[in-house]
Specification:
Layout: E1 2-4, H1 9-17, H2 32-40, E2 47-51, H3 57-61, E3 70-75, H4 78-91, E4 96-100, E5 113-119, H5 125-131, E6 132-143, H6 149-154, H7 156-159, H8 170-179, E7 182-196, H9 199-210, E8 233-246
Parallel strand pairs: 1-7, 2-3, 2-5, 3-4, 5-6
Antiparallel strand pairs: 6-8, 7-8
The structure holds S-adenosylmethionine.
Length: 247
């Protein structure tokens, strides 16, 4: 399926017209399965941990403090945790806690949480397994190897430092989870194309997510990615949401 990164109208127009027999599907929100999983697993007696929480999107968007007994977010960057703490103060939720902590070596006792989540952040699966209670769940989301394929091939230097494509494919991801003791209960892979309407939109987006200035020296590298039919730029997305159980 294909949708525009910043404007869905163009793709919906195309979807209706089915140019050259190509079917364009309407937009889908890649976060849906993840949101449904963290909310669906909720229980008022259970504790929830979000690893690499960033600005706390998983916790605040889903109002998890109203669904779980205790909710904790950790991130290695103090700036992120300070933003989360301010949001928690505004939300006035007593069961919310945020800590600066390295996900690779967590300062929690064994079995402290019933659900652990990680959205596009690095996780030590052995550590996630350790801090989960027996029967607890890990909900995680990763870019797979082919995610952003066109742009990462054209600008390898932009992706070298901040590559979030941690797993090659689903079997690779599942093997690593199983090696840590998990039993995988769900893999939901979204494989679709974004269409950027022009170079500027694409460059603005990728400069933000890669923290790279490589795109300003783009030369003709972006021009080569353009579709002749309308000069838009297609980019492959491959995103996997996985739920795994501590057996
Ligand atoms: C791509 S962001 C995702 C943020 C958030 N999960 C979201 O989806 O909005 C990755 C986050 O992981 C954090 N991070 C990276 N390495 C980490 C580590 N070793 N331990 C804890 N957090 C880490 C970063 O600081 C960043 O906030």
């Amino acid at each position: 399926m294909i949708f525009m990164a910043d404007n869905t109208s163009l793709i919906l127009e195309r979807w209706k017209s089915k140019i050259s027999g190509i079917k364009f599907d309407p937009p889908v929100d890649y976060k849906t399965t993840f949101w449904e999983s963290v909310r669906g697993l909720a229980n008022k007696n259970h504790a929830f941990l979000d690893v690499g929480t960033g600005v706390g999107k998983v916790i605040f968007v889903n109002d998890l403090s109203s669904l779980y007994r205790k909710v904790v977010g950790i991130d290695i960057m103090p700036e992120m945790i300070s933003i989360c703490k301010n949001k928690a103060k505004e939300a006035n939720a007593k069961n919310l806690d945020f800590k600066v902590m390295d996900a690779m070596d967590m300062d929690f006792t064994d079995g402290s949480f019933d659900v652990v989540s990680s959205m596009f952040s690095p996780v030590n699966f052995n550590e996630a397994y350790r801090v989960l209670s027996p029967g607890g769940y890990l909900v995680c989301m990763y870019s797979l190897e082919k995610d952003h394929r066109e742009v990462s091939r054209a600008f390898p230097e932009a992706f070298s430092k901040t590559d979030s494509r941690m797993y090659k494919n689903v079997p690779d991801l599942n093997r690593k989870l199983e090696a840590a003791g998990f039993s995988v209960t769900l893999n939901n892979v979204l494989h679709y194309k974004w269409l950027f309407k022009d170079e500027e939109t694409l460059v603005n987006f990728y400069e933000k997510i890669t923290f790279s200035q490589a795109f300003s020296k783009k030369g003709d590298r972006l021009a080569m990615l353009k579709r002749r039919i309308d000069m838009s730029i297609p980019v492959t997305r491959v995103i996997c949401t996985t739920v795994a159980k501590k057996t």
